[in-house]
Known about the structure:
By secondary structure, chain A is an alpha+beta fold. Chain A contains 19 helices and 32 strands. By secondary structure, chain B is α+β, with helices and mostly antiparallel strands.
Amino acid sequence: MSSPDLEAHVRGTSRYIDDMADPAGMLHAAAVTSPSPHAELRAIDAAPARALPGVVAVLTAADIPGLNQIGGIIQDEELFATSTVHFIGQPVAVVVAETFHQARLGARACVLDLEELTAIFDAREAAAAGELITASRTLDTGDVDAAWADCDVVVEGRADTAGQEHLYLETQAALAIPEEGGRIKVWSSTQAPTAVQRITARVLGLPMNLVEVEVTRLGGAFGGKEDQATPWAVMAALAAQRTGRPVRLTLNRHEDMVCTGKRHPYSSDFKLGLKNDGAIVAYEVHLWQNAGAAADLSPAILERSLFHATGAYFVPNARIHAASCRTNLIPFTAFRGFGAPQAMFVMEAAIDRAAEVMGLSRSEIQAKNLLSEGDEFPYGMRVKRSRARRSFNEAAGRFDLAAVENEIAEHNATHAVVKRGAAAMPVCFGISFTNAVLNQAGALVHVYTDGSVNVSTGAIEMGQGVNAKILAVASAALGVPRERIRIENTTTRTIANTSPTAASSGADLNGSAAGLACRAIADRLRSVAAERLDTPFDRLSIADGVVLADGEPTGLEWNELVWNAYTKRVNLSAHAHYATPGIWYDKETEQGEPFAYHVFGTAILEVTVDCLRGTSTVDRVRMVHDGGRSLAPAVDLGQLEGGLVQGLGWMTMEELVFHQGRNLSDTLSTYKIPDLLGTPVIEGHFLDDADNPKAVMQSKAIGEPPFMYGIGVYFALLDALRAFRPDRKGVYDAPLTPEKALMFLHGDR
Amino acid sequence: MAKKKPIKDAAESGVTRRGFLGSVGAGAAAVAAGVSTRAEAIPEITDPEEMVQIALTVNGRLHRLLVEPRWTLLFVLRERLGITGTKAGCERGECGSCSVLIDDLPRYACLTLALEAEGTEITTIEGLLDGEELGDVQRAFAEHDAFQCGYCTPGQIVAAEGLLRANPAPTDHEIRHGMSGNLCRCGTYQHIVNAVTHAADGRRKGGGS
C-alpha cells in the first residue's frame, strides 16, 4: 500500500501551493534582503521601488501592527531587520506588486544604507568571543577524568562536518487571503501550521483564532520547512492584511538557497580511550554548532546532538560538551537527523582513529561496543529492546562483512590505482521530540451518512507517507476499506495546537490520535450493531466493511450500520488527543527518559576510488533496519533508501561553501546533490519479529534514522584513500569531495 | 510564414490569467483543432515586453495566445495555459522538474522560450494519459512507488517517456544515464529505475501505447 496521492502524483494533478489558481486581485510579494553579513541598517529608501510600475506597497518593520518578532524557541529574530542586519539574505522589507517580476524589480530597486560591522563566520571563533545562542551544555556520565588511567590507548582528534542544503524541490511558498472580519487565511508550504499561525497572529496583531493555516502537501521538506517556512508565510499574510488583497509569495530557487537555513555545520574535538581489546572506556567530546545569526531551532538540535554523541555504542564514562555559537551566517535549522548525524560522525571518526592507531579493524571496535539491553545512555535512559547487536550481526552475516573486507584487501593488494573500501555503519536513534511538550497530537474523524469517512490530523504529508500510515491505522480501527476513507488537508481550524510534523514522529503521534478517534466511533457503531443483531457487544467486530459476530459475517454491512446509527442519533464524529506517555527530561541534572523508544540498524557500504583522479563511486549499500511492524512497507522502504541517499550526498558531494558570509553554492550548478547516476545499488532489509509496544500498531518511526547510514561512506572512502597512501592518517572533514580526496592522495598535508 | 504581428496590450487580446483559466478549463483559450506549422523564423523583436501572437500545440490541442518573447515555455504552460503538471524546480535547467517532450524529445521547459516551441508538438504529463486511464509509464511509476513527495514525478515520467521513445530497449546503464537529468531529492531513484525498466519491458511485449 503506497500513498493515497499515488494516482494524482503520476497524473500530475497533485496540487502544491504554486499550482493553486490565483484568487481574483492577487498580488505577488518579494523580499528585500540584506547584501551584508553584518551591518548597521541606517535607512531603507523605498521610493525608487514605489515609483516602479505595478508596485503596490513596500512594507518594512514600521508597517507591522503587532510584534516584529518571529523567533520560536528564543525570540531573537525580527521578521524585518530594523537597526542591524545579521546575515546575507536577511529580510528587511517586502515589496508587493501586480506581478512576480514587478515584485522582484521592486525589491531590487530598494536602496539600503548600510554601515559594515565586523562579522564572525566560524563557530569556534564565535564561542571564543562569547557569542552563544544559549548557555552551553554538558552531559557527564561515569567518571571520565579517572577513566583515562584505565585505558590502554587514548586517541584525540578533530572532526568537522559542513552544512547541507535541503533542496526540497518545491521552494518555500505561501498564499495569504484576507477574509471578512479581519480574518486571514494562509496556505503555507510548512511542516508546522501552528507555528505559522502563532507567528502570523503575533506579527499581524491578531488573536490566533483569526488566522487559519492550511496545508495540502509539501513538495519535500526534510526539516527545511519546520521553522523556515514561517517568515515567508508571515510576509504574505502581512502584505494581504495591509493591502486587503490576496498575496502570493514563492521563492525562486536562488532566493531559497540564499535566504533559508540549512543543516548546521559542526566542528568538534574528540578524545577516546579504549582497552587493548577495543572496548571503549571513556569518551570526551566538544561540539561547536554553527547556529548562524539567530536561534531558530538550534537549541533543540544541540540537545539531540548531546543525546546521540555516543552513537549506537555503550560508553561507560562520557562527557559531552556542546555549544551553540552565534555567527553571521543564515540561521541554520532542522534537517533530517536534527543534530544527531553531526555528533555521530564525530564518534565514528574517533573509532576510526582508534582503529588506525591500534591496528584493529574499525568494524571490530564497532561490534565490540554496541548497545546491549539495559545499557545506560549518557542522558540516564536505559536502552530497552536494543536491536543494535542484532541488526549489526544480521547485516554482517547476511552480507558477509568479513568476506567483503577480505575481498577488498585482496583487491587493494593487487591494484595500484583503483582502490576499494568498505564500512559498517550502525545507527541508534531516539524517537520523540526531545522537548516533551511537543509529543502530543489531535485527530478529528467524521463518518458521513453514506459511510464515507474523513480523517483530519495535525500531520503534514511531505512525501514521507504519513497519510498512507494514518490511512492504515484508520482503516484497521474502523474496519472499513481504505477506499472509503479520505485523509483531509491539515488545517489549524480543524486540528488546533499541532506540533510540527518532524522528529520522525508524524505517524506515531497523529496515527495514534487517529486510531483513538476511529476506535471511539467503531465502539459506538458496535453498540448499535449489538442492539440491532441482539448479540453481545464483545462478540462483535467490524472488518472490511462488514459486521462480524465471533469472526463470522452477520450480513450487516458498514453503510447500513452507519445509517442505522444516524437514525438512532448516535454521534458519528470523534475527536481524540494523544500524548506520548512516560517521557520526561530534567535539564538541570541532564538526566531523563526523553525518548519513547529507539530505532536501530546497520548498513554495509562499499566504494571504489580512482586514485589518479580522486573520483569515487559508491558501489553498493546494504542495510538491515529495525522498522518495527510496518504500517506501510512500501513507504518505509522508500524512506530507508531515500534517507540513505541524502546521507551519502551530505558526506560526499554536497559542499556548502561560504565566503565572507556569502553562500557561493547558491544554485544547483554549484551545489551538487545525488542524481540517478551517482546512486548506488541499494538493498534494504527489515528485521523480522520486530515488535514495538511503544508506538501505534507496533510500528516504528523511520524518517530520520536511515540518513545516518550515509555516514559510513566517509569511512569507506577513507579506507580506499589510505590503501593508496598508507603513510597518511585519516582526516575527518566532511564532505569528502573528489577535490579533497585528490588533496589527500597527492598532497602532503 | 507570416511575420508575427506584435500587440502592445495584453488586455485587449483577451489573454487571461491562470486563475480565470483554471476556473473555466484550459480549453477556453484554445482552438479545438488546427494545423500548426513549424516556425521558420523567430519574429523580429525590438522590445522584449512587446507581445507576440503565437500558436502552441500542447497535448494535441492548439492554443493561440500572446506572449512576451522572453517568456519561457514553463511560464506559459503554467501561468497562461493553466497546465500545472509541469513543475518549476530551479528555472535554470538543473533539476528537470519542468521536463516536457518537444517533438518526442525531453526538454527543460524552463530553458525553452515559448516562441521556440511554436510549430512543435509539446507533450506534458497531462498528455501521457491513455484516454482517462494512466499511460503505461505513469502506471509503471505507480506500481513501483517511484515517487515520494511527488513534485519531481511529472518531470521524471516525461523524461522516461522521452527516453523510451528514443530507445525502446534501454539497458540499466542507459536508463540511469537517460534519467540523470531529473533530480529527486527524496532519493527514490532505485524505484524510478525499476519503473522505467518495467515500462520498457511492457512496450517490448506490446502492452504499451
